Amino acid sequence: MVNKRKTTLVVALIAAAAVIILAWRPTVLIYGLQAAGLYASIAVPMGLILGIVHIVNLAHGEFLMVAAYATYLLCKSLGIDPYLALLPVTAVTAGLGFVVYKLTIRQTLKAPELNQLILTFGLGISMTQIANLLFTSQTRKLSFDYVSASIDIGELSFGVYNFVFLGAALLMVVGLRWYLTRTTAGKAAVAVGQNPRGAAIVGIDVDRTYGFVFAMATALVGMMGAMLITRSAVFPTVGSPYTMKSFCLVAMAGIGNIPGILGASILLGVSENLLKAFRGLRGWADIVFFVLIITVILGRSIRGKKA
Amino acid sequence: MILDIKKLETGYGKLRVLRGVDLSVGRESVGLFGPNGAGKTTLINAIMGMVRPWAGSIEFEGAPIGGRPTHLVARAGIALVPQERELFPGMSVADNLELGAAYVPRGRDIIEKQLDTVLSLFPILKERYRQLVGTMSGGQQRMVAIGRALMANPILLILDEPSLGLQPSIVAEVFDRLSVLKKDVAILVTEQNVRESLRAIDRGYVIENGRVLLEDTAEGLAKNPHVVSAYLGL
């Protein structure tokens, strides 16, 4: 009863804040949601790995970078649109993820967690340096007309293309939720995440499930890498900031809470854009992310102590 | 014989726990008794592929299974109800039961039939069908664990200390259910509550310090002076 009242209060506060922002400066909400879509669509695959395989993949952003380069090369050499390159690139990153899991991560799963952190950190650095050697640090960019599509509503004019990331994030959350709760393979993956020993006892191949989930997550990141190139330049460290942001969003949502990542991303995206709305504070927008994560973690610790 | 173990030796690191165990289970209910640290759980872990045998053999239905991965042992027809239950606490009773059968060929094809059997054996699970397992009491979780194992339609059902942490009335209920089950499935049960389990078994082994000390029928064990003084507290 108390929980229900609390949830109603939080929802009412969020709705009130959204109405006030919409009335005051609608673009804060619009661009906030667009940014949230991008953050969530990249963070959800990391949440999937953390929730089931129980490792923090610090090379997460580097898989995004590999996909972005692969898309760039395909588009440049074949003259195709990134959305046409999306399928082969997704398949490539899925394969790369599976190989990386089998050759490296799998070997450290029984070791203390620090080993997996160091391993994925090292993998991330290696992937960045290989990209540096192959492509140099020069930024590469593709331009597409549809990216600058905008809409006018009365006196309000705003770009709409970036809503595609919000759409991707929503599809990802709904699709994963369906997969994990409605299919036998998905339920088995959840079971492995909750109790790998119990899963093996009922005949589930835990190692294969880990490999599949890791590959699925890298495939989703690959998909986002292919889409990212439509709006961003590609360079060796393009993925690094997304690793940290994704990790913090997953931590804010709570391990295993995939829909929560979308909520945390909306909070982050709208807060950043709210700060950007004040001329003197624009440069401080990046700090929102640290303030939010510290607040959430502190709040959780205090609640945990009380409990 | 369904399960045939010969001269099994195994342990953890440099610690030798089992020192040449011989044990067999046919179409019957077999008890495995012994004090804490005797090697009962290690023996079960070795059968289930969680501990690699150092020497000796484990055969199931005539095929060697020693050292095979746990999921393959389960798929071959051995279902385990572990001491710690090892359920999926964030999932419903329905999902836990479904996963008990989904990956085992013998259970997967008759999932509806097995579900009817399990729900009629444990009616409480029908009432709590959509409840998250992690929110259930220890006794109810034990029933989910037994139900999940039965969903696989196993040839051999292994129960490791099924009465651990349960109140006496639930312990009696669990052993009542086992007495019913032994008509359809071979059972190997380890237990410290020897008095209750003697009701449900046909034959038993007493294992101490990693070796089989005694092997006899349930009646024979109930009269054995060592069993009477060490395990029945008389």
Structural commentary:
The complex is a heterodimer of chains A (307) and B (234). Chain A is mainly α and 307 residues long. In chain A, 46% of the residues are buried. Chain A is built from 12 helices and 2 strands; from the N terminus they run αααααββααααααα. The longest helix of chain A has 27 residues, at 26-52. With 234 residues, chain B is an alpha/beta fold. Chain B is 38% helix and 26% strand. Chain B is built from 11 helices and 10 strands. Chain B has helices at 40-47, 70-76, 93-102, 105-108, 111-121, 123-127, 138-151, 168-181, 194-197, 218-223, 225-230, and strands at 3-12, 15-25, 29-33, 55-60, 63-64, 78-81, 156-160, 186-191, 203-208, 211-217. Chain B has a 6-stranded mixed sheet with strand order 6-7-8-3-9-10, sandwiched between helices. A 4-stranded antiparallel sheet of chain B has the order 2-1-4-5, with helices on one face. In chain B, helix 3 (93-102) runs parallel beside helix 7 and helix 5 runs antiparallel to helix 7. The longest helix of chain B has 14 residues, at 138-151. The model of chain B has no long low-confidence stretch (mean pLDDT 92). Classes of the chains: A mainly alpha (307), B alpha/beta (234).
